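Hey,
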Amino acid sequence: MIKSLNTAATGMKAQQTNMDVIANNIANVSTIGFKKARAEFEDLLYENIKEPGTITGANSISPTGVQVGLGVKTSAVQKDFIQGSTKITNAPFDIEIEGAGFFPIQTPSGQTAYTRDGAFKKGPDGRLQDKNGNILQPEIVVPAEAAGVEIGANGNVQIIVQNNMQPQNIGQIQLVSFVNPAGLRNIGGNLFVPSNASGLPQQGMPGQNGLGQLAQGQLETSNVNIVDEMVNMITAQRAYETNSKAVQAADQMLQSMNSLR
């Protein structure tokens, strides 16, 4: 009977993790470039009371055996990199990746991180940076005299200087792809860093080698579907409650055994 207590407890713990993942998805429903996650589970070891195929008599074997499971555990939290919806902003430094790829940026510590959040700003020195001051790589410096900025689908950045209608090229935005983007490690701030599971970053021009194109004046919103998350939340809540009922039932059965004379 103690086994059922532990088994139900693992179910409650798994649903707690599931609820944590769902809550994070809902909390980031308005976060630019956010990618929703999904908790995945697997069953634990089994107590083999009788192995399947055990000989039970002359010319007869057990067709199923007796195996009692010992619960569940969280095996992975899978990131879903499906494209989010488009939000039109008309801001000159808002850039959406239409397809695969990440913007490479440099953090103050010198580390290169990667993001889908294209809400860039012009820093005090003219360099494009994200909302936390991380610099877009390779650096794009917009001069103070620029009257207009145009970012092409291929990442080519041009400016128009006052009294000169001929566009001037000031740089090229590059994108980075990974063999397994789901293996990237979140570090907060809408940033990812590579891991052994993601593979090495592969840099290229937008629109080439499977990379998406860029769209100026718009952003990729979170790919969280709030209706799906509400359904998942209710399901997790009911599963947690049911596991707690199993704990209570097992405890009552143990009380009945203890009351025997």
